[in-house]
Specification:
By secondary structure, this protein is an alpha/beta fold. The protein contains 6 helices and 11 strands. The strands form 2 sheets. Strands 6, 7, 8, 9, 10 and 11 form a 6-stranded mixed beta sheet that branches. The chain has a 5-stranded mixed beta sheet with strand order 3-2-1-4-5, with helices on both faces. β7 (129-136) and β8 (140-141) form a beta hairpin. It is globular, with a radius of gyration of 19 Å.
Length: 233
Amino acid sequence: MNVLAFDTCLGAVSAAVRWHADDGWQLREAYKPRSTGHAERLMPMIAEVMEGGGVAFSTIDRIAVTVGPGGFTSVRIGVAAARALALATGKPVVGTTSLAVVAHRAEDMLGEPLGERQIMVAVDAGRGAYYVQTFAAGAVETGEPLLLTAQEAARSVGRRGAVVVVGTGAQAVAGLAKEAGGDAEARFPDLQPHAGNLAHLAPRLAPITPVRPLYLRPPDARAQVAPLARTPP
C-alpha cells in the first residue's frame, strides 16, 4: 500500500511518502520544526517528497493525515489539504491523532521493548492544559485523547502501572506522578509528530469520510453573537 502522509498539528510540519519498490519498502520524509507558517510549507514539502521519491500521485493508495489535537489553525491546514488531495486524486483518506504518531515515534526511539509499560503522550496545550493520550505497544490506543491539567494527567498515571511519559509536557506530568507515588518516567520532551511514522500506521487505519478535525478546546476567537451598535452619522 503506497501512502502519502503529512502532519501540521503541533510544533512542526512534515510530509512523507512510503512506497513499494523492487527492493522492498521505501520511505522519503521531510520535516521542519515550525510554530507558524504551516500552510506555506506543507504543499511544497509534499511536492518535495513525491518528486524526490519519484512517486506519482496516481500510484498512491491512501492519503494519511493527523486530525488533531493541536492548534486550531494548524489542524485545519492538514485536514483541508487531505480533503483537497482526496478530491483531486479520488484516493481515500485515513487519519489518526497527532498523539498516536508521537507515541509510535517514541516507541521506535526507546531502543527496547515497551513490554507491559504504556506510553503517555502529554503535549503542552497552553493555559495550564495538556493534550494527553495513552498507548500500549504498537501505538495501540488505551485511552481517548483528552485535555487535562498536569495534575489530572499525573493522577491517571497511578491507574496504569508503569508509564513512559513523552512530549512537551512529559517532565511536568511525570514529575507530579512520581511525587504521588506513580511509576512514571519522562522521555523525549521535544518530540513532535513525524509523517514517516504516520505512513507506517496508515495501512491499519480505516478510511474516514468526511475527514473532520479533532479539537479538544474551542478556538480562542469566538463568533460575534450580536451586531455591534453603530454610531449614528
